[in-house]
Amino acid sequence: MFLLIAEFTHLFSFLHDPSLDGSFIYSLAEQFHHHPWSGLRFWDLIQPYFMFIVGVAMPYSLANREKRGKSSSQITRHAFQRAFLLLFLGWALYCIGPGRIEFRFQNVLAQLSVTYIFAFLVMKKRAWVQILISFLLIALTEIIYRGFPVEGFNHAFVANENFGTWLDLQYGGADLNGHWVSFNAIPTTAHTIWGVLAGQLLMSQRKASQKLRILIIAGLIGIIAGYGLSPITPIIKRISTSTFVIVSGGWAFLTLAFSYWLIGMKKRQKWSLFFRVVGLNPLFIYLFAHVGGAVFIEAIIHPFTFLLFGWMGTLTASIITSAIVLFLLWYICHWLNKRKIYIRI
Known about the structure:
The protein is mainly alpha-helical. Helices cover 66% and strands 0% of the residues.
């Protein structure tokens, strides 16, 4: 979430300025932009991480609700209400900029609404059943993309000439410039299901070393299989190919393994408070930044930062401005956390 709100400050865009081409900063900043098509950069892992960690939290949330005496029907009703609100908010964000109704569902909230409810419906099944369902969804996506028969859209891995684009054109929500597709929610449901399995593992009575070993093995299998199959099916984030889902899932498992080792086993926890305050109000800060909160803050401080740092050049002053905006967005989360204010759905 911290990195997602950083995107709204345009910090990564300024660091990727053409004038810095050839520098280490430019190369590093490139990793904070999505790959244009076939390949994998760090930024391509942010949405999988988000969907995965939501899955990790789901078993804990379910256990807490059951502990408070909520019935199965109440919990299920709440899950569907949450999914609907996520879908509505994801769609509504596309209508704010142009000021008109636009039916598009490619952003993280709309996608999460689908992966969340799918994962919820299968989370009480045995682990092997959840794993089987996740890979069936991935396999189904692979088959549909490769076998789609409509002329002009039967090139599985070509931008704007694939099944995902065709599907979005049917309801007028195609993203022909960015090449993102709504159907991504189906294969990436695997990320949330795998997160649920990871959460159930962490809640189990297994030894900490066993939990860590399983997370690492799952991560390595995903990375080896994903990269190994990439000559057959390219790794494409924008249409969530099977190899992308598998390899990004592998990285999610390894990242969780590292976090569990460092925070859960080694008890190195204090440093994480900086990021935790953002994660405690993720929906609020994402929506706030998205609907103009970051722009509003930037408009206020821009005159002052350029007055103080303008002599260093426009680019440097812009980078400093973005960094201050990011800090203030973080501070809003910190302020809310200090007052125990948490906005949830």
